[in-house]
């Protein structure tokens, strides 16, 4: 079964002619994060990888549109929920907040069902306006928290 999953992942991710945009990947990841927030859970990069078929190493890049969108809209940083299995903390690309434990609580308390899932186009626009993966927090101008 592991071999089948690996083969399927390889076909889905690396097939010539099959190209999935980062903003489309972000739209696939958002509902996982919204559900995790509703259940007051964090997700490891490995688990997100297994649930989506994406390579673990590329997940941070795929979440940049979500981080940028949350920053621009003044939403709690939903991407804080994806953590390293060893440290329990987000990766180096997470720059949306310095106080991670506080942000866990803010994300858990938000009504993500009411927010809804942004479209791939909204994610693309957010990254265009505010690239955020690994950009120092003090260099980011954000909307006031709602």
Furnish the topology, listing elements before pairings.
Layout: H1 2-14, H2 22-38, E1 43-44, H3 45-52, H4 59-73, E2 82-83, H5 100-109, H6 112-115, H7 120-129
Parallel strand pairs: 1-2
Could you explain the architecture of this structure?
The chain is mostly helical and 146 residues long. It has one domain (19-136). The protein has helices at residues 2-14, 22-38, 45-52, 59-73, 100-109, 112-115, 120-129; strands at 43-44, 82-83. Strands 1-2 form a two-stranded parallel ribbon. Residues 1-16 have low confidence and may be disordered.
- In terms of per-residue confidence, which ranges show pLDDT below 50 for 5 or more consecutive residues? 1-16
What is the strand content? under 5%
Kindly give the count of domains: 1
Range of helix content: 40-55%
List how many beta strands DSSP finds: 2
Output the structural class.
Answer: mainly alpha
Radius of gyration: 15 Å
In whole angstroms, the N-to-C terminal distance is: 45 Å
Note the main sheet: 2 strands, parallel
Summarize model confidence as the mean pLDDT. 86
Biggest sheet strand line-up: 1-2
Question: Which descriptor suits the 3D outline?
Answer: globular
The SSE order reads HHEHHEHHH
The number of helical runs is 7
